[in-house]
Q: What sequence folds into this?
């Protein structure tokens, strides 16, 4: 890492900015596959719950390169609506 001599600030350590690039790309591309963690955040549950739903085949998902799990936001939106309705009605199993 280098320092800007004039301002004495680090130059070139832009990892947080890089993470922001991926978030912006996903935000503008609705069909960019979501990870388990991103899907959990979108659904308002823990990643463990998402893994459980995948295991029980209760949630639409994709398998990429074998064990990697991805989700399409367009598939999760109806699932989230149905899930929220079940929680409000108290009919979850």
A:
């Amino acid at each position: 890492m280098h320092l800007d001599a004039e301002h004495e600030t680090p130059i070139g350590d832009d990892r947080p900015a890089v993470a922001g690039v991926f978030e912006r790309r996903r935000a503008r591309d609705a069909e960019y596959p979501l990870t388990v963690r991103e899907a959990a955040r979108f659904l308002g549950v823990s990643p463990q719950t998402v893994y459980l739903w995948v295991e029980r085949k209760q949630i639409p998902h994709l398998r990429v390169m074998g064990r990697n799990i991805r989700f399409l936001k367009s598939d999760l939106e109806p699932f989230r609506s149905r899930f929220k309705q079940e929680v409000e009605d108290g009919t979850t199993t």
